[in-house]
From TrEMBL:
Keyword list, A-Z: Membrane, Transmembrane, Transmembrane helix, Transport
Keyword Hydrolase: no
Top-level division of the source organism's lineage: Bacteria
Name of the featured protein: PAT family beta-lactamase induction signal transducer AmpG
Chain ranges passing through the membrane: 21-41, 53-72, 84-104, 110-128, 149-169, 175-196, 240-259, 279-299, 311-330, 336-359, 394-412
Keyword field contains Cytoplasm: no
Pfam family, one: MFS_1
Family in the record: Belongs to the major facilitator superfamily.
Subcellular localization: Membrane
Membrane topology recorded in Swiss-Prot or TrEMBL: Multi-pass membrane protein
Length: 420
């Protein structure tokens, strides 16, 4: 396979680009969803305030399929590449949004920070839609597990590094310095999108459309009515209903437990916010690197659905163990163990979940929109869980409830194609 010019026709460039793009997402998530949350929790923000912040930042990811799926599916291809044009445009807007953090002053209020990061999520969700469609179009089915492992490793390495780095900067230099470092680091990570093309003959930078005849898929110009019929038909099966429910339940359960537990460690049990951020980063790193690569190989060997059921069962056992530790009054003493149980095993779920969703979304005229609907339902679960977490404590009952959700998902067996 020709390696230059850099394009997605090369497996090496595919893995490199997709891993770096998810590394970008992880760095921002480490700053916005962990280091910043712990920083404001230490400053006195309540669980409700934290939940509201997470919900506001996550809202564009819930609206992602409505905003960007049809745009990516039905747009005419640009000379830069049918997906890469939108990727580069979205990353430019995302960086402009992050620059807005520098205008908030020091120290800013959590609400103002949430609004700016919501704008970033709006642009980043478009970049994510384009990236996922590029993965679906370019990665062979036999490589989906390894690709999912690479993207998951990129995300968690970025999240871990971002959490640890920005927790330290927030603690020692303040918000403005952390925002400036975030802008600089993410700009470097976004640059490879300008280098790697979808096809070797794509333009590096161009605003022009491809003149017919152009390299495209027949479904790209589908009329709106036909597009909607195909989209609705894709979700009228039992498989789709089960997968949608599973996507919602996984992130809903995780947010319902993890948000109040992290706040309680800082405000009730006296943990240092920086130390908590570093521990969360380390746990994410363990699960998302060696663990993700091993699970990726396992997914390619046994298939994503079988691997996903096994990991859901392991997640149920992990939350059951966490519930036992909390019920025994060991919440403060075994905080790192509980955090590990609630984060490492569930993190590995996504390595098997991504190929499952991609395979369920590849057919039809609305594949990008189908995939983003599954992802949006997952993000909706995260937003709803974070919002409801404001009224809950991280109790053994909540942990048992999450274990039950995971167990129900593990016993669900897609395969019946009858209408739901």
């Amino acid at each position: 396979m020709r390696q230059w010019p850099a394009s997605l026709q090369s497996a090496t460039w595919r893995v490199s680009l997709f891993t770096l793009l998810y590394l970008y997402q992880g760095v921002v998530a480490g700053f916005a969803l962990t280091a910043l949350v712990n920083h404001f929790a230490a400053a006195g923000a309540s669980t409700a305030d934290v939940g509201q912040h997470l919900a506001v930042v996550g809202l564009p990811w819930v609206l992602q399929p409505l905003l960007w799926g049809p745009l990516i599916d039905r747009a005419r291809p640009f000379r830069m590449g049918p997906r890469r044009f939108w990727l580069v445009l979205a990353l430019a807007c995302a960086q402009a949004s992050l620059a807005g953090l520098l205008l908030l002053g020091a120290p800013p209020g959590l609400t103002a920070v949430s609004v700016v990061l919501c704008l970033h999520s709006l642009a980043a969700s478009l970049a994510d839609t384009a990236t996922d469609r590029m993965i679906a179009d370019s990665v062979p089915a036999g490589e989906l597990g390894r690709t999912s492992a690479g993207t998951r490793a990129g995300f968690v390495i970025g999240s871990a590094a971002g959490t640890a780095l920005f927790a330290w900067i927030l603690e020692t230099a303040g918000f403005a310095a952390a925002a400036g470092a975030l802008l600089g680091l993410t700009t470097v990570l976004a640059l490879p999108a300008l280098l790697v093309r979808e096809a070797p003959d794509d333009r590096v930078v161009s605003l022009g459309l491809r003149a017919p005849p152009y390299r495209a898929e027949p479904r790209e110009a589908a009329p709106a009515k036909s597009f909607m019929r195909g989209l609705l038909a894709a979700f009228r099966t039992r498989d789709a209903a089960i997968l949608l429910a599973m996507c919602f339940a996984i992130d809903f359960g995780l947010a319902l437990f993890q948000v109040p537990f992290a706040v309680a460690l800082v405000q009730v049990h006296g943990w240092d916010a920086g130390a908590l951020s570093r521990l969360q980063a380390l746990l994410a790193l363990l699960g998302g690197t060696v663990g993700a690569l091993g699970i990726g190989a396992y997914v390619d060997r046994v298939g994503p659905e079988r691997a996903l059921r096994a990991l859901l069962a392991a997640g149920a056992l992990a939350f059951g163990a966490a519930a036992s530790l909390i019920a025994a009054g060991l919440e403060a003493a075994t905080g790192p163990v509980i955090l590990g149980l609630a984060s490492v095993v569930p993190a590995l779920l996504y390595v098997a979940l991504l190929p499952t969703v991609l395979l369920a979304s590849r057919a039809g005229r609305a594949s990008a929109t189908q995939f983003q609907i599954y992802m949006a339902v997952m993000n909706l679960g995260d937003v709803v869980g974070a919002w409801l977490a404001g009224a809950l404590a991280a109790s053994s009952l909540v942990a048992l409830g999450v274990a039950g959700l995971f167990l129900i998902c593990a016993r669900a067996r897609p395969g019946d194609r009858r209408p739901a």
